[in-house]
Write a structure and sequence with these properties.
By secondary structure, the protein is mainly alpha-helical. 92% of the residues lie in helices and 0% in strands.
Length: 116
């Protein structure tokens, strides 16, 4: 029982660290890509580089939104992966315990039938 609890806590902590790592790695990448897309579209449409200050403001805002959305999506994906793994782990342990209980009940039934 103690080992199972440690394994569950280890799984939760691993999932949490993996999610945090994915979030912090995705924020700058997604932000730069989002802002770069706006700057690139502005330069292509206006034939002017660098663009006006309003374009930079819009690019920064869009980069922040894309970075936030990317981080949130990755957090949900990692939490789902961790939850699925934890559910499989608990299902395996429950099945093992249920089979042990089933064997004990069958043994008890055999002893009761044998004593008649």
């Amino acid at each position: 029982m103690q080992n199972q609890l440690i394994h569950v806590i280890h799984n939760i902590m691993t999932t949490l660290f993996r999610a945090v790592r994915a979030i912090f790695l995705s924020i700058p990448v997604a932000g730069v890509l989002g802002a770069g897309a706006v700057e690139g579209a502005s330069a292509a449409l206006t034939h002017q580089f660098p663009g006006p200050p309003m374009t930079h403001l819009l690019a920064a805002a869009f980069g922040i939104v894309v970075a936030y959305a990317s981080a949130l999506t990755l957090a949900v994906i990692e939490a789902t992966r961790g939850g699925i793994y934890l559910a499989k782990l608990l299902e395996r342990d429950f099945t093992r315990e249920a089979s042990t209980l089933d064997k004990a009940v069958r043994g008890f039934e055999q002893r009761m039938i044998g004593h008649r």
